[in-house]
Amino acid sequence: MFTDLHLHTTFSDGTYSPEELASEARRFGLVAVALTDHDTVEGCTRMRTACESHKIEFIPATELTAEVNGIELHMLGYFLDVDSPKLLEEMKRFQEGRTERIKEIVSRLRQLNVPLEEEDVFGLAKCKSPGRPHVARALIQRKVCANLDEAFERFLKKNRPGWVPKQKMSAEDALEIIHDAGGLAVLAHPGLARSEEAIPALIEGGIDGIECFHSRHSPACCEYYVSVAEEHNLLITGGSDCHGMNKGKPLIGSIKLPYEYVRLLKERLAPDHYARQPAVSAALNNGSGII
User: Fold this and answer.
1) How far is CA 139 from CA 90, 133, 134, 144, 201, in A?
2) What stretch of H or E contains 109?
3) Model confidence over 233-259: pLDDT tens digits?
4) What CA dihedral angle connects 16, 18, 19 and 23, to 10 degrees?
5) Which domains does the chain have, with CATH numbers?
């Protein structure tokens, strides 16, 4: 009874379609998954249907970019009402910001005589939440770079010529958006950046949990964040952060979070959570168990 609560599809910067991702989850024997595409819940409908066909429990989710005291962090929102007007309004704003960021990156690269067009990126991305991996893949298609690592190292990493900062919301706003949509807010992969420094402020702001288990967390790092979560009565989650082939070997299956942690997430939800979501309520009443 294992789960993976951090997965991406072609609706943001992953390379798997929802159907391919659900098939991979089935291949690895996962009983529950969460789709955490960046700044969008657009793929959740298809992912839910694909998971139903494989009898896998589906958790609608997203990954938001936020900051607190100048520290960038990523916030995972689980069990979201994907029809929440406020959630969709904020996501539209950030999707527009992502589009403008891509245009600025392309403009900067063209100033360096890099043969790249906006349509190279948008035509490849075909989603509302384009990101730097789409630029990297376009550079490969243009034969400017041989692989993703080269594209990021030469052009797209911070302090490289194509670097453009990502639009961020305040951590307070991210928490409010997730909670307003009936969801649970979890700090993603705190071991990968300076986001640990933000944990006290996030606790004060009402964060629900920490992603303790991640494919790039060492065993010692996982153990440390479990202790932090337990000390502050925070929920514990984990996931592979799989982007398909975008980051080399697909990571799905590298993290297998025991289902008990999903059960604990459900216990923390507001009592009327499922009643607020007609599609979910109907699924439960029909006895499918797919949420």
Assistant:
1) 30, 10, 9, 5, 39
2) helix 85-111
3) 999 999 999 998 866 678 999 999 999
4) 70
5) 2-88+169-285 (3.20.20.140), 91-156 (1.10.150)
